[in-house]
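Good morning C.,

I know you're traveling, so I'll keep this short. The sequence:
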Amino acid sequence: MHVKAESAFAYIDLAKSCIEECASFAAEIDLDLASGFDMMEIFKMRGNQSLQDYYTPKRYSKIRKRILKSFELDISQYNILVPLFTINAISEKLLSHGNPLPLDLTLWMYAKRKHKHCFGMENFTEHYEVLHAIQYEEQANQLYALSKNVSSVRKEIKSITACYRDADIKRIYQKAKRSLGSMRKIMLYDRNDIIVNKLISTQDQGRIFCAVGAAHLYGKNGILAQLRRNNYRVKPIKNSHTFAE
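The tokens, ready to paste straight into the viewer:
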């Protein structure tokens, strides 16, 4: 949902046709608000910390050289930002080919042009506060692991691309859960709860097109399972679609 890769846009025409039949469009956050914030300030580590605080000088130098060589990205540019920002920047770089804007922003702008009511499912500030709730050391360890397994990272990105192309939400969820490790509760499960509660609380607004990352959909704690437990009928929408109630 947040990437520019062509595989993520495989069903954009279907998405647009569904948006046209809805009264509202919801993204994970209000993307209009995002454009008005200093994102570098939001991602800045608290307590004047920096990435170099979590590595020896020798290890930091190795990580920087590996990532620069493999991804043409200099981590020194992100030295004071949360390590997850750097990890995400690497992922986006690998998934950036295909479209000028990420899918969620593309759909948001389309909904605005169609005069739909657009809003965010999550509180803007709380959405990004999650990045500071996860220990920086744990994030730094993930960045180090990434730098040591560049070939595996490339292979995984290729596999994820295929999952998007095939609309395989089960595998996307499994991969996300595995990669998040101990962070999966705060990054995945807790946010699923927030999104479902918001959906239910806004059901009186008519049909809502809700655009969230695919990893949030599947699993016993996923959005689809939670909607079913709340007595909603959930079914996939095909090219000749009808809406669930």
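Safe travels,
E.
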